[in-house]
Amino acid sequence: MGNSFIFPAPESASVAERLARWMCRWRRGGIEHYASGETGLKRAQWASSDRFTVNDERIWLDALPEAFSGLRIVQISDIHHGLFLPEQWLADAVQQTNRLRADIVVLTGDFVTYSRANIEPAAEILSRLRARYGVLAVLGNHDFRVGADAVTSALRRKHIEVLRNQHATVHFGGSSLYVAGVDDYGYGADVRRAVSGIPRDAATILLAHNPRIIHLASRHGVSLVLSGHTHGGQVNLPLLGTVYGRSPERLRYKIGWDRLGPTQIYVSRGIGTIVLPWRLRCPAEITHLELLPGTSEGSQHAAAD
Ligand SMILES: [Fe+2]
């Protein structure tokens, strides 16, 4: 994750400049990205051309076949389509994702927050996603509260593969990569069933909305878990830390890369918000992962150049 800085508005900033800066902060989740010495409207306009931060990460997997070296996965999590994340913002996320020309796009749950009325519009916009091997999804806790079957049907009608305690296999160059997905942790997640039939030593990616699944995933030989749910804490107060998710377990697997035994995990901050349409020092993100074969021992992952 790159460093983020918040600079005070210059004394001489006009009303228009202040408004542009405020809009930029809003879009990017409370963070303004300024290189040292750059202030004001010009930079704010440039930064707002892309609504979401793209986080580049490289992850080494012991079991990844050479044929999949350099495989690129783009993850969008916690969309929460509705009042706080309107259609245009989701359309922008899709456009940014398509520009990354992913091999696989994964959607890790919470497509909606409270309303069934948001399900179809979200699925319609997400149907524009393009990826070489397809678009795969799992459901989040909010999807279950709103209507798991309705969300599943809407996405599947748009040719998005919803993995509900099951897996998909990607074949390339005589090798296989397995992508499993589970229902949300509190709504029937079954890792054993999801990975059933996958060879124990194979490269397996598990899509799971809630990162708490890592304890089960590590027992089932999963190579990499891709999660969301935490929003990275969403509001990260100076000195006090994040507002959401204060339990030790949630603090451990709240944001970014980590590992438990042989299993690595990446927890996305997501693009949406809950409770308030506000993020602080925790910008929304689209995650762009590059997978490489090689040892995962030690701190072998790295942000891409
Ligand atoms: Fe969420």
Task: Kindly describe this structure.
Helices cover 24% and strands 24% of the residues. By secondary structure, the protein is an alpha/beta fold. It folds into two domains: 1-49, no CATH class; 51-303, Metallo-dependent phosphatases (Purple Acid Phosphatase, chain A, domain 2, 4-Layer Sandwich), CATH 3.60.21.10. α1 (15-27) packs parallel to α2 (41-47), α3 packs parallel to α4 (119-126) and α4 (119-126) crosses α5. The longest helix has 17 residues, at 141-157. The termini are close together. It binds fe (ii) ion.
List the helices and strands and how they pair.
Blueprint: H1 15-27, H2 41-47, E1 53-61, E2 71-76, H3 87-99, E3 104-108, H4 119-126, E4 135-138, H5 141-157, E5 161-162, E6 166-172, E7 175-181, H6 191-195, E8 204-207, H7 214-219, E9 224-227, E10 236-237, E11 241-242, H8 248-252, E12 256-260, E13 263-267, E14 285-293, E15 302-303
Parallel strand pairs: 1-14, 2-3, 3-4, 4-5, 7-8, 8-9, 9-13
Antiparallel strand pairs: 1-15, 2-14, 6-7, 10-11, 12-13
The structure holds fe (ii) ion.
Give me a quick take on this structure.
The chain is built from eight helices and 15 strands.
